[in-house]
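TICKET: design request
STATUS: open
ATTACHED STRUCTURE:
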């Protein structure tokens, strides 16, 4: 328990805190009950939330008790954001999202033993309160001048902010008090954008005569080239497999830039310091092996989607480039892999030359025929010698897919619809 703070600092996972010396003493005297929250503002959490999930897992592995809050109440309100007022979601929709996010978070934690994790929902203690009770018991302890000083609130004052979003930090602050009262929770952490809400909660607990309590935030994850971390061509990197396929999830981490992979391993891998430093040396000496990228992609895909799904994704990655049997791939995995590579939908098969043009692997029929003449045209990993020969449905994988490859590295898919 005594070295978890050193580990978090080495990984670059602490940006702000209520006091590192006090936090170190508090953690050393554990086990400490802590909480981290996830708001159901979408049907899935994403890459940014994964930082919090894995930080909470590290704390549990170090001997501390997690309270994992999925905000059925705060999800109905929405944390203020710089870009303007949030759209309020229907309560039934939010309740469905709460259940989905609970199921996404649960596999990362142990729910038995001396430091068993507990799932909590702030709707349980927020909904029973009347408006009068909320204003008297909670609102009385929140100075408006401090609420106005929060950056996102100050930025929104000119364009306008509703009382609903303005009051968000009262609900989150009350969460800390209720978890302290009910479970003995004495530590909260979250992303750096939550620092204003978190410190409001720390102050509120103190004003209610409880505590002491502690808090810290993790930094925003950035890439070496300055671009935003965690975005794919389809948008955010979601943890829900129906929104980001396991194949796309794996490929995101596998394609991490050499400059980013070691910092990302520190943040996202549960490997120890010695193993990460060894992978860092390998990356520096033999970057072409992509050892750190493979290790990170495999670890996170297994953590999130399970070992069997990870193995299927790796098999698909190899089979697409001729290092495995395409026919052995599950239909869902093959479809996801081809969607990530680029999938052309056609109503008839025609011939290989036409399909190469339709998929974008060739600029014209003549270009496709040149690729075949040069020995660089492949269909389902078989070299095509006659690009104008008609294709039959027998060549379809799972009755619907074809895998096209030009040369060794350029892949596209075709789906017959």
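STATUS: resolved
RESOLUTION: sequence designed for all positions
ATTACHED SEQUENCE:
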């Amino acid at each position: 328990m005594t070295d978890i703070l050193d580990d978090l600092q080495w990984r670059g996972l602490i940006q702000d805190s209520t006091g590192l010396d006090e936090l170190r003493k508090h953690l050393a005297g554990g086990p400490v009950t802590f909480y981290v929250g996830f708001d159901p503002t979408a049907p899935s959490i994403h890459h940014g939330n994964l930082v919090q999930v894995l930080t909470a897992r590290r704390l549990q592995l170090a001997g501390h008790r997690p309270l994992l809050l999925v905000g059925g109440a705060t999800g109905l309100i929405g944390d203020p954001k710089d870009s303007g007022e949030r759209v309020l979601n229907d309560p039934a929709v939010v309740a469905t999202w709460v259940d989905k996010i609970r199921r996404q978070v649960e596999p990362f934690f142990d729910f038995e033993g001396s430091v068993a994790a507990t799932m909590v929902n702030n709707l349980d203690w927020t909904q029973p309160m009347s408006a009068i009770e909320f204003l008297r018991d909670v609102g009385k302890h929140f100075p408006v001048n401090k609420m106005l000083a929060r950056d996102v609130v100050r930025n929104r004052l000119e364009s306008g902010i509703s009382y609903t979003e303005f009051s968000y930090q009262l609900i989150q602050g009350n969460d800390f008090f209720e978890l302290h009262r009910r479970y003995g929770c004495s530590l909260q952490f979250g992303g750096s954008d939550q620092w204003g809400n978190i410190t409001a909660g720390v102050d509120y607990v103190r004003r209610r005569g409880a505590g002491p309590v502690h808090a810290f935030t993790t930094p925003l994850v950035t890439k070496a080239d300055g671009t935003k971390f965690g975005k794919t061509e389809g948008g955010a990197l979601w943890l829900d497999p129906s929104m980001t396929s396991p194949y796309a999830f794996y490929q995101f981490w596998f394609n991490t830039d050499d400059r980013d992979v070691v910092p990302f391993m520190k943040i996202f891998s549960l490997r120890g310091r010695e193993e990460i430093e060894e992978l860092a040396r390998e990356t520096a000496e033999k970057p072409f092996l992509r050892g750190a990228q493979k290790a990170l992609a495999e670890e996170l895909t297994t953590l999130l989607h399970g070992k069997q799904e990870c193995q299927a994704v790796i098999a698909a990655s190899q089979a697409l480039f001729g290092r495995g049997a395409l026919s052995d791939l599950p239909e869902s995995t093959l479809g996801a892999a081809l969607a990530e590579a680029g999938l052309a939908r056609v109503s008839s098969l025609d011939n290989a030359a036409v399909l190469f043009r339709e998929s974008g692997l060739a600029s014209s029929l003549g270009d496709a025929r040149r690729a075949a003449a040069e020995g660089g045209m492949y269909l389902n990993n078989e070299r095509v010698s006659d690009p104008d020969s008609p294709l039959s449905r027998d060549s379809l994988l799972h009755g619907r897919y074809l895998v096209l490859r030009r040369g060794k590295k350029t892949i596209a898919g075709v789906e017959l619809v």
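CLOSING REMARK: The chain is about 45% helix and 10% strand. The longest strand covers residues 410-416.
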